[in-house]
Structure formats: structure tokens, C-alpha cells
Amino acid sequence: MGKTITEKIFDAHCTDEPFTGTYVLKLDAVFCHEITTPIAINDLVRRGKDRVFDRNRIKAVIDHVTPAKDSKTAEQGKIMRDWARRHKIKDFFDVGSNGVCHALFPEKGFVRPGYTIIMGDSHTCTHGAFGAFAAGVGTTDLEVGILKGVCAFRKPQTIRVNLTGKPGKGVYAKDLILEVINKLTVKGATDCVIEFHGPVVAAMTMDSRMTLCNMAIEAGGTSGICMPDLVTVKYLWPFIKKQYASTGAAVQAFKKWHSDPDAEYVRVLDINVSKSAPRVTVGYKPDESKEVSAVKGTRVDQVYLGSCTNGRLEDLAIAAKMLKGKKIAPTVRGIVSPATPAVFAAALKRGYIDTFMKAGMCVTNPTCGACLGMSNGVLASGEVCASTTNRNFFGRMGKGGMVHLMSPATAAATAITGVITDPRKYL
Amino acid sequence: MKNFSGRVLFLDRSDINTDEIIPAKYLTEVSKEALKPHILEDLKLPSFSGPADCAGKSVIITRANFGCGSSREHAPWVLEVNGITAVIAESYARIFRQNMFNCGLLAIELKKEDIEGVFALKADDAVMDIDFSARRITVTSSHGRKEITFFLSPFDASLVEAGGWVEFADKRY
User: What sequence ranges are listed for the domain Aconitase/3-isopropylmalate dehydratase large subunit alpha/beta/alpha (chain A) (predicted)?
Assistant: First the structure.
């Protein structure tokens, strides 16, 4: 019987099986940010084990609250900074070079097909877009990862999602993943990897594939994953061109990470996206989404464009195209957080930042900020935000606040009118 | 190994998420103890009146998919610093469940009907005795008494016995 990509990655990285069904994997990369890493660092120091398994395989960033907003976040930054210097971690991104981890690290070429990656962040599943096994973990797993370069997993089962047909106008990766989560439910993929297949995925950019994989965790998934192909290779080419004679050779080499045709799946979900529509979440769980027509007209106080889900250049481009020459509604606060300095710079060069500012929006530095109610756009109790982020839990963006998750296009249309709006009439 | 027995906190809802267990705004703390007053602060349930209800409790009994959402280990930590060392649920989010065992805490899964059976004994005086070696929980309240056996994978049990994943991994790797 054939194997899934995840089974192949597990086979290639398993260094110990202490008990049947428990796989201890060697890690190709351990990603760190300032919210979940400082307690691991402090614990290693307390144990007299302040070491790192491989300083070149550890990548660190300050992204959740940056620049520091108060003494506590300044202390978290300092712990990270001192630790990175102490261990000569060269890939450490601080104020001036930092951005949202799941947008920044792929951009820096730190993710490769077949890699095993952990991070103390649930949206680590984003990196599966490159054909890597990338899982969010807690601080203890992170701590052992930093110290030993290993992490234990039960071998996940795989759910195969086939996206066929042709997405209509105004339907993006965000709408499709909201539809997938709606079908799977918030626990439907627990202990599973979600594999994305089909012509719709094959035609997607890496930015879109990252949006797709980013929200696998919202269905409970251990990771999302796409098969590496020419799109993947072209994205990675500046980082891998010395290793392969041509892009074609790289595509060929990465085929060893493709799931076999006779691989076993615990569930197969077929979605013909020709029938899909822009979607918006309506409640406090990411699986509670409806077609935009069902919620259009809902008043919002804030529109947020950013995050590891939808803060990349492609996302800003869609919104800028719709907002060009327009003003956002006077009742709405519009906030744009380009996910990385490179995204910011490109958006500036292409005139998107000018468009956003002329529309009356605030453009912040790259940070996770408002997504989890930590900075740069926290809601007051009773306020509502139309957001391109990934979680709509009650109070997520501020105590008593409500979040409607949607695509950048739907968010831009909503910013213009001040109420949840179908983006298709602006496209 | 920790003590896993004591008074029971009943949280009668599925999909209780990490933001409800400990809101993100407290993730700026760099000590576990500082999280203590904020346990389940954003959880809104008819039968739950906030952090004060957690005082003196050692075990949480809840429904399906407990701990979904964020990877923050602050969720198990805020339970631990409040003296809650075990959670009993129909199912868990993967990362939360792993984090519990990684801290040497217990995340026990029971069948839906067994969870119902425990909720049937819901009362202020409910006490749960967890016999780790016998893999058996005993719930006693003014509504009655119930014994249920549970299963732990050998790996999960080893983490509890070792006191957590750092201790386990440090000896082995």
C-alpha cells in the first residue's frame, strides 16, 4: 500500500519509537517567537541546560507585540534578544527586520519540502503549503526541540480534500478554507493532517496555499499540507538554485514527497468550488461560517487586514485594487498590517500603501497585534471587526468584542460600506 | 508524580477554547504563577461564575474538544497553578492534550456515556478520586457514586510518571 506525504516525512525523520505508535522525529527547523519561547528559555536556564541543539536550525522572531508596548512585552523581547545573542542564532529578527512569523520565515527560505518543523504557535501548519510537516506545539515541546532537536508525535491520519472546478469571481483561498472548516467542524481534523489536492490548489500561488494551510488548525488539524510542485520550486528558487540544475530538476526531486496514488486516507472531502461563494464567519467558532449574502448589512466598527492568514502581498493587492480612489466608511476604523517588511516595501512601491492611506486607513508595522487582541487594534466590549485573521473566538480581539472572519476582498468591500458587503460588485 | 484527586469543576460545554481558558492579553507574563487569577476568565457558561468557582478544585470534567485553538501552554499552566492537575473530557484538541501530558498532568478521555454519567453526579460536593495505577476514577457526590476505568497510552503514562516531557526526553536523548 502507498504512503501519504506525511507518512513519508515521518519515515525519513523517525529517530525513536519509544512505544508503539509514538514517533520521535528529528527536526529540520525549530521556529521561535517572543510569546511562547521566553518561558522555555527561563526553564532551560533554571535546569542548568541553557543550550541549543543547532543554532543554524533555530529561527527566531519578535512578532506578536512589536515594538514593545509596555514593560512586560519589553521583558519578553529582551529575554529573546539576549538568548539569541548568547547562542549566536543568526536568523533572529527584531525591530526593523521583523514580521509575522508564518509570513516571514517562508519568505526567508527557511521552509523546504519534506522538512519537519515545530513552533510554539498553532498556526505553524501554514508551512505545510511547501510540502513540509509543520506542527504547532506547546512550550515544553518547544523547549525539548530547542535542546534536543526532536519532538514526539502520534502518527497522524490524513484527510484528503480535493478542490475541483473553477472559483468564481470574489472567491479566494480564504473562502475555500472557511468552507472546508465548515464541512469538517472545529474538531473534524483532530490528530489528522489535511492534504489539499486538485486543480484549484495546483493553480494557486504560494500565498494562497499558505492561507489554505494556515487554517488547518481551526478544524483541529495537526497540519495542512500541499504537494510541492513548480509553483513551490519557483517560490524557493533563490534559495535552492545552487542545489538543482534547473527548476524542472527540483520539481522532479521533490516528487519523492508526493503522496502515493494508493495512499490511505481516513476521509476524502470533494468540493466543487465553482459553486462556492465568499464566506464570512457568524459566531464564535471558525466552523460557523455562511455565504456572505446571509450576513450582508451587518454593521462593523473596524476592518482589519493582516495576519499570518491574509497579510501577504497578494492579499494587500486585492484590497488595494478595490479601495483605489475610494474612501472607507466614516463609521469604520480601517487597519492594515502588512505581514513582513518585504510585503510592506513591495506594497509601498506598488502604491498600495498610498491607496490605503488615501482611503483613510491606518497602516501599522508588521506584527500579529490585533489578531489576538494584544496591540494595534484591540476592540472595546460590544464592538465588531471584519477581519482577515483566523480566529473568531469570543473576546479574541479584545474583551467582549466580536470578529467576523473573511477574505481581504470581502474585508475591503466592508470597509467601503461600513457593513458586511459582498465583494463581487466591487471587482 | 502529581496528586490527581479532589473536588470537581463541571464545565458543561464542548469546544472550550484556549482563549477562554486564558486570554491572550495575559501571554505577556513570563511566570506561570502570574496567570493564576485569570483562569477561565473569558468563559461564559450559565453554571459558571468565573475564576472564583475554580478555588479548591482539582479536576475539571467537560465535554468534547476541550482546549481547541491556540498552542499556548499557558492553558495547562493556569490550571496547574490553580491546583487543577487533571481534566476529564470526551476529547481534546491535540496540542492542548499533548501539553497536559508534557507537564506531567492528566488529560483523560472517556466515552460520551461515561461523561454523561459523571455529569449526572454534578453537585457542589462532588469529589473525584483518580487511581493512576489502577486507571480508575471514582466520583462521589450527594447524588451518588460512580467508578469508571480509563485508558492511557504507554507514552502518555510514561510522561505522567516521569513528571513531564523534558524529564523523559532528557534521560533518553
Answer: 7-418
| Inter-chain residue contact B68 with A191, CB threshold 8 Å | no
Give the CATH number, domain containing residue B60: 3.20.19.10
Residue A1 pLDDT exceeds 90: no
Number of residues that make up chain B: 173
Residue B142: CB atoms within 10 A of its CB come to: 9
- A255 and A287 inside one domain: no
Q: Distance from A351 to chain B by nearest Cα, in Å?
A: 34
In-domain check, residue B1: no
Say which amino acid occupies A126: T
Among A135, A154, A173, identify where a domain stops: A154
- Determine contact: B171 vs chain A, CB below 8 A: no
**How would residue A347 be classed by pLDDT, with cut points 50, 70 and 90?**
very high
Decide if A63 touches B, using CB distance below 8 A: no
The pairs formed by A324-327 with CB atoms below 8 angstroms and a separation of 24 or more are A324/A355, A325/A355, A325/A358, A326/A359, A326/A416, A327/A358, A327/A359, A327/A360, A327/A416
Strands (E), chain B: 6-11, 57-62, 86-89, 106-109, 127-131, 136-141, 144-149
Chain-chain contact of B28 with A42 (C-beta, under 8 angstroms)? no
How far is the CA of A28 from the CAs of A56, A114, A149, B83, in angstroms? 10, 9, 8, 37
Other C-beta atoms closer than 10 Å to the C-beta of B137 total 26
Asked if A186 and A220 touch (Cβ cutoff 8 Å), the reply is yes
Q: Pairing between strand B127-131 and B136-141?
A: antiparallel
Range of the domain at B95: 6-172
Q: Are residues A385 and A413 in the same domain?
A: yes
pLDDT at A312: 98
Cell of A135: 506542527
Contact A175, A279 (CB under 8 A): yes
Domain range for A164 is 157-275
Per residue in B17-70, pLDDT tens? 999 999 999 999 989 999 999 999 999 999 899 999 999 999 999 999 999 999
Q: Looking at the 3D structure of chain B, how many domains does it have? A: 1
Which candidate from A38, A140, A147 shows the least CB-CB separation from B99? A140
Would you say residue B161 lies in a domain? yes
